[in-house]
Amino acid sequence: MQKNRTIIFILITFISLSVKAQQADTAKDEKFSFHYQTTVITQYKPGFQAQYSGTNSLSPKEETQTSITSTLFAGAKLWKGASIFINPEIAGGSGLSGAVGIADATNGETFRIGSSAPAIYLARAFIRQEFSLGNNTAHQSTDDNQLAGNEPTKYFAVTVGKISVADYFDDNTYSHDARTQFMSWGLMDNGAWDFPANTRGYTPSVVLEYVTPKNELRYAVSLVPLVANGPDMNWNINKANSSTLEFTHRYSLSGKNGAVRLLSYLTTTDMGNYNESIALDPTAPNITATQVYGRTKYGFGLNAEQAITKDAGIFARASWNDGNNETWAFTEIDRSISAGVSVVGNKWKRAGDNVGLATVVSGISQPHRTYLKDGGTGFMLGDGNLNYGLESLIEFYYSAEVVKNSIYLSGAYQFIVNPGYNKDRGPVNVFSIRVHARI
User: Fold this and answer.
1) How far is CA 25 from CA 33, 342, 374, in A?
2) Which of 134, 184, 389, 407 could bond 402 through an S-S bridge, CB–CB 3.0 to 4.6 Å?
3) How far apart (Å, rounded) are the C-alpha atoms in residues 238 and 329?
4) The pTM is what?
């Protein structure tokens, strides 16, 4: 009851502010920037068939869960090329069954939520210094963590502070934001990219960027959690860290914009090893019993997008990691491929609406499969047994603009086959309602 009152209060406050808010004058350079977002997602699943359940299984019973995030995006210009941004955030609620039991989890907002009780914390706090490498500029409009003004089209930038690494890597015009687009974890990012983050999705990092109109190169080194999917970061950076490298090429095909991104990453920390855990205890393997510094996880990702008309675009992703050691931060996926289409509503005179349809198919390595079959658990999966099959998810959503540029109402449907890679469970149907509001 208290959680529902908090959600209602935040929504009423935001709606009152957004109706009165004036549009920012984006023709001028901003010295300060303030934006705000609230997203509430309610998901319902009917009961489904399951031959058995384990510690980290999706519950086969009928279930409804709600999540909420509210974020303030505050920014200020410091000196030429430099800016600072701070994002306090409140999050609460839960994913279905506590966001376990499905590798391609259904609510992308819940990976930021450590407990069901609403809590306030500092999501981001970083400084960005940009160095112009040419005389050409383009106007940049005001946005979350972005000051309006003329920006160089060719530059080198350094960002230092607490960030979400996914803000800089694996971007995609049609599928990258669970607050406005597809909600599944396997659709909003490359699933096999075990990107560094705490439970809520943030980590201290240093990001280097070299950007030109057609090509972009980014590198980041980040802290990783002390424990898998944990809230606290490991500051022993010599032994525990994650590096991410990505190259982006932008192009035009028959006058329609497109982009291709190639990503690689390497994480090292005191991970447990699947095969060693099984050898140590074949009947009840425990990954934490084999944790030792020096272990690594590495992987690659491909990300492509292409506009096909002025209103529609398609996207695809494919990713892989070695799968020998335990997943440390994102989700238990070692191989993944996804594709989808997104359409803006101009054809039916709803320019602020958009509709999307996508699918993702994910799998895990042989050592990971054996570990789960023998009764092992990760931080997301563990049915006590495993009749392995690829996990697949289809998602359809429609987002309707209720108040221009401010409030959006979405409905979504997801169909999951082999949840947690288990043929003995499911299929699962998930229905969602999402309210997203922003200034």
Assistant:
1) 11, 30, 61
2) 407
3) 18
4) 0.91
